[in-house]
Specification:
Radius of gyration: 22 Å
Strand order of the largest sheet: 3-2-1-4-5-6-7
CATH architecture of the largest domain: 3-Layer(aba) Sandwich
Structural class: alpha/beta
Distance between the termini: 28 Å
Strand content: 5-15%
Order of helices and strands: HEHEHEHHHEHEHHEHEEHEHEHEHEEHHH
CATH topology of the largest domain: Rossmann fold
Shape: globular
CATH superfamily of the largest domain: Glycogen Phosphorylase B
Helix content: 40-55%
Length: 415
């Protein structure tokens, strides 16, 4: 395999240094990581690639599985003094005050790594995946001031914290979250204004980013959510079971909160009307609170991590996206549509994924959400209509086939 750090020096092929939270590999258990894998797969057809990420245990293990295989992975050495447990409180205070950040340990390790500095200097483009990883941009500008910088904005960070503040009712917690939001907004503006270009996943996020950084070029590249799979037959379980599906990394606050709200407020209404209904929650790192709660409910299954979600999509009747917080395009919603599933979602759960006509319903109050889900479970015509309209819309915007050329175009700069 070519040494990608020296490839840029020899002029064999143009080099992109990609600074990311995670290592890309097949089967990664969160949507942002899967996007990153497909992102690098597309760029690898035109560029040599170096992927820089924190040297966490998970990233170290994942580096043996890297996909695409022609990406050179560079892991940050996190063994310095700042990584010692005696500085844990200091690191936490810094994260609270700093705004979007990769953290003190990773930033220090990044600046110390001479191979990374060499890669930056030899790059044609330097990209940052997730706004938090752009916190090293000051050093990047010092080492490679003339190399174009691109931020791939997976979401608008300040919007996520705005929603957390809006959902908080406790006075003291609201104060703490208001301070945190102020720091996040200020830090986000500072980071993104140092970019030459920002890639956004939706027009909605692009408009928000433009208000924060009006002088920076922003391009919309819709994420590849998979190939359309509308024509396959669902397994017929007869009238005994009607399966509702949710997928997501369950360690994430917005996924946990949305599922708990659904179980508390929506599911009892649905079960009373459709006794044959069952709810499957598929995704890694479910919290103990969810596992314990679900164990006390009938017809609720928490799978934990699964190697493939395909069997769960294939056996489901309806997909729900009951998110009440978070930001950015909801990959899980579009992916479900591409699998031919009708979708019931909250407004946030539908964010960035098409029009309301693509859904069985978009509803934020429990009763309306439940009634739409009951309709979808009980009426085959409603399911088929939402499946057809949503699938066709998602295919037009988010299919893998149309992604690569749009992405490669966004990395072109005039020499």
């Amino acid at each position: 395999m070519i040494d990608r750090l020296s490839a840029g020096e020899s002029g064999m092929q143009r080099l992109i240094t990609s600074i990311s939270i995670c290592v890309p590999y097949q089967g990664i258990d969160h949507a942002g990581g899967e996007y990153y894998r497909q992102h690098l797969t597309a760029l690898a057809t035109m560029y040599d690639l170096v992927s820089v990420s924190p040297g966490t245990r998970q990233n170290i293990e994942s580096s043996e599985l890297v996909d695409p295989s022609n990406v050179q992975v560079r892991l940050l050495n996190r063994s310095g003094l700042l990584a010692h447990r005696r500085f844990k409180i200091l690191r936490g205070i810094y994260l609270y005050l700093a705004g979007p950040s990769a953290g003190l340990v990773n930033m220090h390790a990044f600046r110390r790594d001479k191979d990374i500095a060499r890669s930056l200097k030899n790059s044609s483009v330097i990209e940052f995946q997730w706004t938090e990883m752009a916190s090293v941009v000051k050093y990047v500008k010092k080492v490679a001031p003339d190399v174009p910088r691109i931020l791939v904005a997976h979401d608008v960070v300040s919007q996520k914290y705005e929603r957390r503040l809006a959902a908080e009712s406790g006075r003291n917690r609201r104060l703490i979250k208001a301070i945190r939001l102020s720091r996040i907004r200020r830090g986000e503006v500072k980071l993104i204004r140092q970019m030459d270009r920002i890639i956004s996943f939706s027009e909605k996020d692009a408009a928000l980013l433009e208000t924060l950084a009006p002088a920076v070029q922003i391009v919309v590249v819709r994420p590849p959510l998979g190939s359309v799979n509308l024509g396959r037959d669902r397994r017929d379980r007869g009238a005994d079971t009607r399966r509702v599906l949710f997928t997501g990394a369950m360690g994430r606050e917005e996924n946990h909160d949305g599922v708990m709200w659904f179980l508390d407020e929506v599911w009892p209404i649905v079960r009373s009307a459709v006794p044959a209904a069952e709810f499957v929650i598929a995704g890694g790192s479910p919290r103990a609170q969810l596992i314990e709660y679900a164990s006390r409910l009938e017809h609720v299954l928490v799978t934990g991590f699964v190697e493939s979600l395909a069997p769960y999509y294939d056996s489901a009747d309806v997909f729900v996206s009951p998110l009440r917080s978070g930001a950015g395009v909801k990959f899980k919603t579009g992916t479900a549509m591409l699998h031919g599933l009708p979708v019931v979602a909250t407004a946030i759960g539908a964010e960035g994924i098409g029009e309301e006509s693509w859904y069985v319903a978009v509803a934020d109050d429990p009763r309306s959400f439940a009634e739409a889900l009951i309709l979808a479970l009980s009426d085959e015509t409603s399911r088929r209509t939402a499946s057809r309209v949503g699938g066709a819309g998602a295919s037009a915007l988010f299919s893998t086939e149309s992604f690569a050329s749009r992405l490669i175009d966004s990395f072109r700069f005039e020499d």
